[in-house]
Amino acid sequence: MTDKEFLYSRIGMALISVQRVEYATRELVNHLLEFDKNVYGITSDAFLSYSSKGKILRKQTLGQVFKLLKLNPRWVIEDELNFYLQKRNQLVHEFFEKYMTTYSQEQVKTAADFCYNLGKASDQLESFFRGFIFFLSMRHVKDRFHLDDEIKKWENDFEFFIASLKKKSLFD
């Protein structure tokens, strides 16, 4: 595999990891919009008011979805969301200009490292949001053993979610 092919594979992996975060984030916000006011009561009135104005959440950018989540800082870590969003935007909007103008070995290594680190951050953020969904799902069952099998798989994500909230940090 050439350096260029290796880098393209890393870019693809980073893009897929970002899409996983976008999917998990939208699912979480959609769930909160549908059930929070009457079931959970964990979001702020500002969250419910602002998000109801958005109408079609599927078409909102990741930044807009993160903004919705940041309206209730008790359940998210705003600095981490901002950091991640900045890195995601670099990949989408600035990557070629910053990392791929010469394909020198140094530039390829720096670009591949960026993609690897973004993928790692994506894994952690996705785990945080899965843990949040696990937390919300617990409200509907007697105990952990009564969760759907798919949600049960996210028990470690729930532990990560709780630990992250306690330490106010998602990323290593």
Topology:
Elements: H1 3-40, H2 45-54, H3 62-70, H4 78-99, H5 105-138, H6 149-152, H7 155-167
Helix pairs in contact: 1-3, 1-5, 3-4, 4-5, 5-7
Can you give me a brief rundown of this structure?
With 172 residues, the chain is an all-alpha fold. It has seven helices and no strands.
Folded structure, characterized:
The chain is mainly alpha-helical. The protein has helices at 3-40, 45-54, 62-70, 78-99, 105-138, 149-152, 155-167. The two termini are 31 Å apart.
Secondary-structure class? mainly alpha
- Give the radius of gyration: 18 Å
How helix-rich are the residues, as a percent range?
over 70%
- The global form is elongated
Number of domains: 1
List keywords for this structure.
172 residues; elongated; mainly alpha
